Amino acid sequence: MQTRVDPFLAAVIHGALENIAIEMGHKLMRMSYSSIIRESEDFGAALTDATGRQLCECTMSTPLQSGPIPGYIAGILRELENRGDRVKPGDVFMHNDPYGGASHGPDVGFVVPIFHMQELAGFSVTTAHHLDIGALTPGSCGIVDAVDTYAEGLQFKAVRVYEDDRKVEPVWQILRSNIRIADLVVGDMEAQVAAARIGAERYSALLDQYGLDTVTGAYEDLLDYSENLMRDAIAHIPDGRYNARTFIDGYLDSPDPALKELPIEVTLTITGSDIHVDLTGTAPQTPNKPINMPLVGTVDCAVWLTLRSILLDSDVYGAIPQNSGLTRPITIHAPQGCLANPTFPAPVIARFCPGNAVADTVMKAIAPAVPKQVSAGIGNLRVMAFSGVSNSAPWVHMEIMEGAYGGRYGKDGMDAVDTLYANTRNNPIEDIESHLPLRVLNYELRENVAGPGASRGGIGSIRSFELLEDGAVSIEGDGQRFDPWGFLGGADGSPAKIELVQARGATVELPSKLPYRQLSKGDRITAYGPCGGGYGDPLERDPQAVLDDVLDGLIDAASARADYGVVVDGQGVDEAATRELRAGRT
Amino acid sequence: MIALGVDVGGTFTDLILADLAKGDVTIHKTPSTPSDPAKGVINGVRGICELTGTEPGRIDAIFHGTTVGTNAMLVHDGAVTGMITNEGFRDILHIGRHQRPQHYSIMQDLPWQSRPLIRRRFRKTVAGRLDAKGNELVPLDEEAVAKAARDLGAAGVEAILVGFLFSYVNPAHERRAAQIVRATLPDVFVTTSAEVSPQFREFERFTTAAMSAFIGPKVRRYVSRLSDELREIGVNGELRVMTSNGGLATPEMIAERPATTLLSGLVAGVRGGAWVGSHAGTDRLVTLDIGGTSADIGIIRNGRLAEADARSAKIADFPVMLPMIDIHTVGAGGGSIAYIDRGKAFRVGPQSAGADPGPAAYGRGGTVPTVTDANLVLGRLVADNFLGGRMGLDAKAAARVIGELAEKLGRTPEETAEGALTVLNSNMANAIRSRTVQKGIDPRDFTLCGFGGAGPLHAAGVATMLDMKNVLIPPHPGITSAVGLLTADLEYHALRTAFAVKGALDIARLQTLYDDMERELGAIFARDRVPSDKIKMLRQADLRYVGQGYELKIDVPDGPLTEAALDRVWQAFHDRHREEYGHAFEASPIEIVTVKLRGLGMVDKLAEPPAYTVSSEPKQVGVGRCVFRVDDTLETHDTPHIERNSLPVERKFAGPAILLQTDTTTVVPPGWTYWADRHGNVRMTHDNQA
User: Fold this and answer.
1) Which residues, numbered 284 to 313 in chain A, qualify as contacts with chain B under a Cβ-Cβ cut-off of 8 Å?
2) How far apart (Å, rounded) are the C-alpha atoms in residues A246 and A213?
3) Would the CB atoms of B583 and A194 count as touching at under 8 Å?
């Protein structure tokens, strides 16, 4: 076994690195003001080396925030080089360049360089999704009509917000005057700087204690270690080409056919311990609509995170450090100018849901090779931004509507949960109603819509909001047109749906992309979540499990009979009738 | 006063009988009886009474630590439970925070979905709704409540939770519904969410209350059965049970609030450590209780046990929103397995060989190298003098399994064994850092108190990694939890959600909330027959900057609340925020989210520990070759084996040494000085540190 550092010391240093990232995230979450960070946990925290390779990430952060951090550093270093500038002690950088690693503007990174013996030794980075970034309409999600990245809000390319440890005041003034609800957003940004500084301080102490060479050797070993695990997992998959295609909604209400029902295509080529991922076949970029997904920061993360969740599932293999070593065996190609590799300045701010569709398509492609490690098709998410002006103060509230997983080998899909590359939290109803002119009218599982299978697909939620004052809503979602895919004989799941019931009586079905739309007091929005696909033949589902679903009110007796061939008789299964019914079906 | 402490652990039930005034103490161990824990307790009580010739009738009080509630959660074996909740919100318990516990896993389970505390079929909804200020939007449908109760009763549920939105502001609907349910189903355990924890965040509150209902019937049956059986064997003294907040409660309180016992067993150890420390002259301690599979870490600051913040406490992966002592458990113990994982990295734990087959050294067929094997290979455990010679260790088997691992690593067996201890100690040191350094506490000023079967083996190693100056090993490390039971007061907590913002708050309203809580706790203490001069009420509040989602707990002055008193509270919050996070937002408005009252009913406690007066020369029973890491190189030292109980009081010796006693082994590495203090604690200090 070839390692650079004593394996015992390496284990000690790896533990210390992980501890630092956890502390950063813990403090950021606790200090921050807006619910998108403190409740939804839409933030990232990580340490990188001087070239931007990720060494560790905070286990509480959301994958789509920590994953792109190496890209932020690459973007910052490239930008500084172009300017003939360099990183100096006492700097803190702000960066949200969509084509420079951040992948969309609302995710702003704060980056504290770490110096050891006068040399740049690494970066401590926090990223977070901010409520508002000064775009054309309130809120930083549901902006589905921007024509280019300039319309999406402020853009920061390696902007110094501290120099020589002193605050660069003009920059902070620009932030305060261009961002709605600046108290919240700027407070969160200050919390990000404070948390990143703690990471830098701890990392410096680690370098002082063990020396740069030892720490470097230990993390090089750690990267190799993660790479070994990934290669080992890939090597177990039969070589070959695995292809899948799914579709996203796009703009369902658009008259332009080039803007709706857009294909996402993934071809995986497995050769030994390498995977090449090719997105050729994916729709061309949408020139004036921001659902384009930067290759760096969105598409690459969607691919990496999905493959590792399947091949190195932490429930099966235990916690495996998330770092740049895991991604070494994976190469990705997406033709320039397609949805999955847009050309600047094509707009990108609403790339969240299409990115999760890429993740789902990767899973669909690899599913035949590792059928016991995947779920059937997932239900995608929808993000809503509610806003208004209450007592002459503007307010914005973002809420992420959960999806559901497809059925799995021997297990039903997870119900009403964030899927694949997203893992945020909802906001407590008691928090929302205590602070905002909103009322939550219901929040429960949908009934009689689950995707049938030997393992049933996960069930989506129903959640409704009522406006208690005049306000507005914007929606950025997907998964309303196409059913999540069934697998191995399982039936397809069912799509999402959003309804607006107006106070004056009309009911309107809303598309998954809805630009800022004014609402009146008393208007109600109901989000019906998607249900994941079924896994395996529903006729093979354990009749007892079908009965449980009936007793729990998730499906009715008619569905038990029609979808599963199970005859439910009062509180029990009529076994003879079930046998007969099932025999007649096969 | 004669007091008995009984701590039920997984393997042993530990007992301590004390004449509190005289300080006479007898300890006793008896096997636990997990299927019926009361049996083990009764056996133990009989045993210790016989051992000491004590009439059971002379025992004035029994202090008890139990894991009945905890185990019901851990193995998911509780009551068939029902819930009555708001129309439209049947699945709050099922959806949770819509987040997965693991980021990178397709095959994971969501505990609240795969192991529901209350199945969907038993969750009934009724009309009735309050707004965020507690105003009624929709009146409670009492007829629907009665019908739900009848249906649940017919379905055979044993416990029912009534949980409504905003009950923490206005409990009226919950109370009324509970009244109807109790009238309909008098034999069913009924609780409301606001009764269990009147705090906002519906998923967490409902889950905590669901847990209370889920374990309630079991805990209540256990406590009542134990009381009966104690009376049957002639013990008439009052039964007191340790709760998760580190205090004691009466059987009546436990029957009403069973979820308060969730950490009962674990907390007593930290209490015991705090007591030992206080008599050794230190009120800043890190307790490190190491057993076979896990290490439990507690922090004591200025004599007070650190509390978990309400948002991070979990039992069996479910959130618990109750006051709890902060106990951090890591998978590190004597049975932890050292191995090379799939990615070829060296790891120790969290998998454990457990007690059976256990470490290879136990000679029960264990074939994987564990921490105990590493300790034996390095000479830190003595094969023919383990646990006072009650159990022999198989040195050859230990050498074999460590040797096999060493070969795979290309290292010597000593390097491998020492490496395993380094990694294990580092895991524990990181856990301690997460509770100290990460919260703005410098552990270097703290004393590390090691107990449990393996704490004294590792305490000095862990202390070295953290630069901690002092180590303390209590006289009987194996029964520290039982000791802790005799050192607590009755302690009850009350709280109210306040949402009061600095600058716009109504002092009179806050005063009313505190007065109201004082009356509430006062009534309970009156029921417990605690004389008023023995009652102490401590005010606290959870504060945050307006907009934040996490609060910090601040002490609130006694007496009438005034602007000046509140000013001290605001300043204390800024200071605390800076200490905890390294940053304060001095210009930002502050919000009091929750007001809290801690009520203490002082009871007689274990007095000063008995004096330790040995003055003879230490008894050396052998010498062995022991391997230690000194300045980054491995050194072999001829190390004396000394009977711990022979150490003369207050005479200092230089390490290395191995101190032997019947319930553990203490390792003193080279470079450390050790001695027995006047209470018989072993103390160690590192020579390089002042």
Assistant:
1) 305, 308-310, 312-313
2) 47
3) yes
CATH topology of domain B77-215: Rossmann fold (3.40.50)
- The stretch B203-209 carries a mean pLDDT of 97
Question: So where are chain A's domains?
Answer: 7-226, 375-536, 542-586
Structural tokens at position A572: 């029990």
Q: Which of 149-188 (B) contact A at CB < 8 A? A: 165-166, 168
| pLDDT given at position A62 | 80
B189-192 sheet: strands from edge to edge = B123-126, B81-86, B159-163, B189-192
Nearest Cα of chain B lies from the Cα of A512 at a distance, in angstroms, of: 20
- Asked if the Cβ–Cβ distance from B426 to A10 is below 8 Å, we say no
**pLDDT band at residue B438, thresholds of 50, 70 and 90?**
confident
Q: Does B206 touch chain A (CB under 8 A)?
A: no
Residues of A in Cβ contact (< 8 Å) with B102: 314-315
Contacts of B577 (CB under 8 A, 6+ apart): A31, B545, B552, B583, B584, B585
Residue A251 DSSP SS3: coil
Distance CA B256, CA B196 (A): 9
DSSP 3-state assignment of A570? coil
- Which CATH number, 3.30.1490, 1.20.1530, 3.40.50, 3.90.1150, labels domain B490-601? 3.30.1490
From B30-39, B132-141, B590-599, the region with the lowest mean pLDDT: B30-39
Q: Say what the pLDDT of residue B690 is.
A: 42
Distance from CA of B201 to the nearest CA of A (A): 5
Coil, strand, or helix at residue B148? helix
> Is the bond into A138 cis (omega within 30 degrees of 0)?
no
Give dist(CA B522, CA B530) in Å, integer: 9
Given the cut 0.85, state whether the ipTM is greater than it: yes
B132 touching chain A per CB within 8 A: yes
Q: Please name the amino acid found at residue B184.
A: T
Torsion of CA A333, A336, A341, A347, to 10 degrees: 180
Structural domain boundaries in chain B: 77-215, 490-601
B119 to chain A: which residues are within 8 Å by CB? Answer: 552
Using DSSP, state whether A329 is helix, strand or coil: coil
pLDDT for the residue numbered A2: 67
Residue A496 confidence class, pLDDT cut points 50, 70, 90? very high
**Distance between CA B391 and CA B363 in Å, rounded?**
10
User: Which range is least confidently modeled, A126-140, A373-387, B638-652?
Assistant: A126-140
Over residues A396-426, the pLDDT tens digits come to 999 999 999 999 999 999 999 999 998 989 9
Summarize the confidence of residues B579-595 as an average pLDDT.
89
- List Cα–Cα distances, A502 to A137, A470, B604, in angstroms: 22, 12, 66
The phi and psi torsions of B249 (rounded to 5 degrees) equal: -140, 155
Neighboring chain B residues of A553 at a CB cutoff of 8 Å: 120-121
pLDDT digits (tens, 9 = 90+) for B52-107: 999 999 999 999 999 899 889 988 999 999 999 999 999 999 999 999 999 999 99
Q: Give me the residues of A, 74-103, that contact B with CB < 8 A.
A: none
* Residue A213: Cβ within 10 Å count: 11
- Only one residue has tokens 């007649």, namely A584
Phi-psi region of A48 (alpha: psi -120 to 50; beta: other; left: phi over 0): beta
Token digits of residue A27: 């403090």
Please report the DSSP string for A276-287 in residue order: EEE-TTSPBP-T
Pairing of strands A159-163, A166-167: antiparallel
| Dist. CA B446–CA B285, nearest whole Å | 5
To the nearest whole Å, the CA of A10 is away from the closest chain B CA by 9
Kindly report whether the global pTM for this prediction surpasses the value 0.90.
yes
Q: Are A431 and B200 an interchain contact pair (Cβ–Cβ within 8 Å)?
A: yes
